[in-house]
Every structure is written in C-alpha cells, then in structure tokens.
Amino acid sequence: MGRAVAAHQVEGGWKEGGKGPNVSDIMTVGSHASPRKITPVIDENEYYPNHEAIDFYHRYKEDIALFKEMGFKCFRTSISWARIFPQGDEEQPNIEGLKFYDDLFNELLKNDIQPVITLSHFEMPYGLVEKYGGWRNRKLITFFERFARVCFERYHHQVKYWMTFNEINNQANYQSEVSVLTNSGILFKEDEDKEEVVYQASLYELIASAKAVKIAHEIDPSLQVGCMMAMTPIYPYSCNPEDMLKAVGANHKRFWYVDVHVRGKIPGYMQTFFKRKGYAMDITQEDLEALKQGCVDYIGLSYYMSFATKGDGNENLDYNEATDLCDNPYIPKTKWGWPIDAKGLRYTLNWLYDRYQIPLFIVENGFGAIDVLEENHQVHDQYRINYLKEHIIEMKKAIDVDGVEVLGYTVWGCIDCVSFSTGEMKKRYGFIYVDKNNDGSGTLTRYKKDSFEWYKQVIASNGEKL
C-alpha cells in the first residue's frame, strides 16, 4: 500500500536542472467554473501553478521522511519527459535530469519504499507540440521509444513496476482541451475533425506504448510494465434494453484502449467504427505486429467514480461524454459533483479481471475536498477517511470474495498537489497538508492531517484495521 502523485503536479523546478517546458507549464490556474488557459507564450500577468507546484524538486527528502513515517510500501510518481529530453527530440538525454531521478529513487529505496513509475503522466515536452503538433505526428513514436529506452536502461535496477501513459483513455472526451493537450499535446486546428485527430493520436500512443513494453522486457525480463486507465464504469440507467445497449457503446469508446494494451490488437467494434466514420487511420502492418509484441503485464487503473447513461435510439451506439451522461439517483456526490460509488470499485475490478485475467493495480483512488487548516495546524478530514475506508472494504471483497488478483493500492495524493484539471490547490487529496493557496501564496510548510495517522495504521495492519 502507498500513495501516488505526478511529477508536474508536485516537483516544480520548471526551469532547473536543464528541464524544458512541458504541456502543463503553459497552463494558467483555473477553477471549477473557469477552465485553465493554454498560453503558448508565457504571460507574466498570469499565474502558472506547475512552475513551482509544491517544490518537491527541492524538498523530496523531507517529504519521503514523512512517507516513511506513514509506512509506505510503494510510491507512485512519474518521470518528467522534459527533464530528460528538454525539447523532446534531442539525440542525447539531459544528464542533470537523469541524476535527479537517480537521487530520488535511491532516497525512496533507502527508506524501504518501492518506486512505481509512469513514463508519461500528462507532462510531455512542449517542444514536441510546437515542432510536431504533438501525438498527431507519427514521429513522436520514435521520440517516446528513445525516452523509454533511456529510462529503462538507467533505472531498471531501482524500478521494477512501470506504466507507459497515464489515463490514456481520458482523451475519449475530446471536447476537453485540457485533457487532449495533457494526454496528447494536441492543439486543434480550425475546422478539423477533433474526434478523428484524437483517435489517430491514440493509435500512435498505443503503438509507442507497445514498443516501450518490448524494450523494457529486452533490457530486463523481470520488469513489469502496465498500462494505466481512468476506470469510470458507465452503468445503464435502468434495465431498459436501450439503456443497456447505450452503456455497451459508451464503454467501448472509453475502454477500447485496454483491449489494445492487453490483447495486442484493435478490437472489431473500433475497426467497424473507424470504417463507418470514414476515418482512414494511419496504421501499418509493422504497427500491428508491434501491438502484438508489446502486450502489458498488468492493468494500472484510477478509480474515483462511476457514470450512468440512457439510451437514445442511436443504433450505432455512438457516445459523447459531454452530452450522454445522466445522474445516478442511487449514489451521492461530492461538493465537486463527483459521484461517490465505493461498490463501483468492486464492480470495476471484477469487470476488468473477468475480461482480461491479468493482475490489476489500483494506482489512484482518493477524495478531493476543501480542507481547513485550524489555528493549531490540525486538519480534521474524517470525510476522506470515510471515503477511503469504504473503497478499501470493497477492494478487499473483490480480492477475498471474488478472487480478483490485485497487485497493490496507492491512494491519489499522499501530499497536497496542484490539480491537473484546474490548477487549483484548494481541492486537496493528501494526507499531508501543504500551505499553499490557489494564487501561489503560502509558506509550503507541511502539516499532517488526521488521515495521516489513520492511513499509517491501515498500512501497518495491511488493511485489516480500518
């Protein structure tokens, strides 16, 4: 058991150690009501929260000491691609960036914490967006292969569990500019078919992922390399056959990525979809062979909520995430409008394991809230404890009752960090409070929340004492 973060949401040091700008560095702070602005040129009048984040780049030893105190067995983070290849297309890596992760991983291992590493967690070099248009360009497969090879060769003695692309299926919601930029480095052009562009980019990423898996196994056969999916199951609103079929179509669009990662081929339902839409996907016979040769060893997943959808008579089962979801009257919501569905985690684990029969790794699950720092520097976050307790109970049922093979469980945000979607600090997930506000003010001092001691006993008891 452990916790998870992403490099761009915690590290800061955006220009230090030879690092280049990444896609998150060009996004301003936003809010739930106002999206982050994407600014190809840095505007001195705007605030860019990822530039400093919570300064993990300089404070990681202090933070790891707190992780050790909590009893972490593992810590999931990512390698900032732009810290290793500042522009993304260099022939040789940035040695200073490599050295930072040498030191970080050694510090974790010294404290008996196993690093679990994502190669690309919403933080590709912005140079690849400017020069090549992001993942709309086939050339990025080669650049990602080079990045992956350098990381596997450098760190395979320190890191045994890897993932390729974080929540690669989130770009199925291609209407979200932030999701598409952070997933694929794409800025849409006027009048182009956004859906077609995103699916082509997705295929290039899936090919790159498969090639990375093959490289890892060639370098060190003991390495375990997984995919990483945002698992938000989409329920039918009712047992009405129209609702049932609509849910089938919705899950096809969100989770076909898993089929490719695990089975090494594009599923028939997506091939038919591309043909019906007239999308001439650029994928060669060599690419298809690469997909077969690079199947993942496990499925990493995030789980926060579930969705529901109603039938609309569309015989093609087409799905639009912006318009086709409906409220589920059987479950409550957070103040942020996110459904709370602990039983959905058990459902998700069963759904995935029944379908693929390979190990699962829950690498994100957490509760975002506006935590209040009291005068005595205490944070009483019983709501977070309640949420996590309910989900851990359902995870245990999936393992003990249903026989699902789960490799591990890392809660999102062991420490408060910048929100990827809004750039805010006030939506907090951590067991450790960081004194920083949405406007960047604050001391960055760390304080333990009530959930810190609670999760410490959960780890010590291996989930038996909740």
From TrEMBL:
Annotated active site: 364 (nucleophile)
EC number, UniProt record: 3.2.1.86
Keywords, alphabetical: Glycosidase, Hydrolase
InterPro entries: GH, Glyco_hydro_1, Glyco_hydro_1_AS
Superkingdom of origin organism: Bacteria
GO molecular function, one term: 6-phospho-beta-glucosidase activity
Similarity annotation: Belongs to the glycosyl hydrolase 1 family.
Name under which the protein is recorded: 6-phospho-beta-glucosidase
Protein's organism: Allocoprobacillus halotolerans
